[in-house]
Amino acid sequence: MRAAVAVSQDASNPLAGLVLQQVPDPVAKPGWVKVRVKASSVNMHDVWTLRGVGHDPKNIPIILGCDVAGVTEDGREVIIHPVIADANAGEGDETLDPNRALLSEQHDGGFAQYIVVPERCVLDKPASLSFEEAACLPVAWSTAYRMLFTQGQLRAGQKVLVQGAGGGVASAAITLANAAGATVYATSRSAENRALALELGAAEAFSTGDRLPERVDLVIETVGEATWAHSLRCLKPGGAIVIAGATSGTSPEADLGRIFYHQLRVIGSTGSTREETAAMVDFVERHQLRPVIDRVHTLDEIHLGFQAMIDGGLSGKVVIAIP
Ligand SMILES: NC(=O)c1ccc[n+]([C@@H]2O[C@H](COP(=O)([O-])OP(=O)(O)OC[C@H]3O[C@@H](n4cnc5c(N)ncnc54)[C@H](OP(=O)(O)O)[C@@H]3O)[C@@H](O)[C@H]2O)c1
């Protein structure tokens, strides 16, 4: 089968390590399922792997792609919960299993014609979504779901700030928080993404760093260094920042005085449990939500999709369709 494989890592030229090649079809071992991939979306995680950030070089070569929608051999239309982990090893929470792995970290990912995954990772695709749309959900939407509702304990009527509206996690967070009855403020560097935030349900959208009309209960942070100080300033006393990513850098000034004086809570979040991914899918169906797609490429055009991710300025997800 044809696949997009990470063959090397280079911080300054990540695309040099992304190669399209013929590889053997995968074989499902007992308890695993073979899925014909129909679409797989690109995440910053794929770029970090090619840059050599957070990915052990000993797991290279590996097929990239952690966000997958497809069809099982018995014809079931599915999306794939992207975390391979053991809840028992995480004291009941699979995201706390020290050996947890996102697809494409230790097991081949979805930029290929077939993928094999544990049976528990296979969930029914929402019937209302196309394969391209469904392939946007597993990583970004489940991450946003855990950030808002598990880690952030968001309730209807609360105020939320979502930083960097154009990102996959951020745009999902705006949509989910609005549907849950929160008042959502969003920031973006671009007028286009501020307009997108309003379309997704934000009450107001601001330029990055602008003063909000009021302080918020919760900040959803994936931008990192560029927005951290603003995130801290925007919180009510006792409020929480849930952080799942730091695209612009991981080492902002901590501003410890503000954190302890206002009793702010800084909460990390990574991935989602299978139950959270399934709850997110139910929520999406119940509220008839749709992810925003910036562009769709074929597998042969995958480098264009990665370049768009690296260049930034996207409004929604980049999807690779594998018809
Ligand atoms: N922990 C997890 O489980 C998990 C899961 C998924 C993703 N992540 C991480 O979360 C981060 C977000 O990923 P993503 O795929 O959603 O989106 P992304 O494309 O990495 O970007 C997030 C948004 O940040 C804003 N941004 C980027 N650079 C900026 C800068 N220098 N100054 C101000 N704003 C900036 C942009 O929004 P505007 O253009 O609208 O300003 C961008 O759309 C990544 O680092 C990713 O690795 C973590």
Characterise the protein shown here:
InterPro entries: ADH-like_C, ADH-like_N, ER, GroES-like_sf, NAD(P)-bd_dom_sf, Zinc_ADH-like. Pfam families: ADH_N (PF08240), ADH_zinc_N (PF00107). There is one protein chain. The chain folds into 2 domains: 2-136 and 291-321, Medium-chain alcohol dehydrogenases, catalytic domain (Quinone Oxidoreductase, Chain A, domain 1, Alpha-Beta Complex), CATH 3.90.180.10; 141-268, NAD(P)-binding Rossmann-like Domain (Rossmann fold, 3-Layer(aba) Sandwich), CATH 3.40.50. The radius of gyration is 19 Å and the shape is globular. The strands form 4 sheets. Strands 3, 5, 6, 9, 10, 17 and 18 form a 7-stranded mixed beta sheet that branches. The chain has 9 helices and 18 strands. Helix content is 26%, strand content 27%. It is α/β, with parallel strands linked by helices and 323 residues long. The chain binds NADP nicotinamide-adenine-dinucleotide phosphate. NADP nicotinamide-adenine-dinucleotide phosphate binds at residues 43-45, 48, 139-140, 143, 164-170, 188-190, 193, 208, 222-223, 226-227, 244-248, 270-271, 312-313.
